[in-house]
Amino acid sequence: MNIIYKIISNFINNKSLYIGEKVTMSEHMIQSAMIAEKAKSSNSLVCASLLHDYGHFLVKDPNKLVKKELDGKHEDMGYEYLKKFFKKDVVEPIKYHVLAKRYLARNKKYYNLLSNASRVSLKLQGGTFNKKESNEFEKIPFFKNTIKLRKFDELAKKTNVKMKSINEYKDLLNSQLL
Ligand SMILES: [Fe+2]
User: In 1, 44, 99, 163, which residue has its Cα 20 to 30 A from 133's Cα atom?
Assistant: First the structure.
């Protein structure tokens, strides 16, 4: 099956809630892309936002992972799969979006904005970075877009938002293929 059709059908068929939140995984990712568009982001960043948690669709039972207090490593799964199809500018920020939370959590204000579920997962992912780890992190490619993606991600958990359909992103997805 064509990758774009596969992604679109995953979005349409997935009804599972984003772990600990009130929106579905599909709604969460579409909201992330909508926020990226509102911030006048590049197409690659909008696409990264739209696909940032795609790894969750590749895990059979994502809820089970959290119940068992295991880290699903969804960012690695998503990255490994998507890099076969999409440009580096799209997949690199996806790979690092979880680590970006550990970077940003050094800022008290940012930490206080995190939802409870997000604080639990931060702990599971290794907690806040120290100074040395933060300095290293600033050297990754696409650092700025990775940080932006993380911020869009945190904002994209609202209910009662008028949602775009995944089909409206078909051209954008196609434009970011390798
Ligand atoms: Fe997310």
Answer: 44
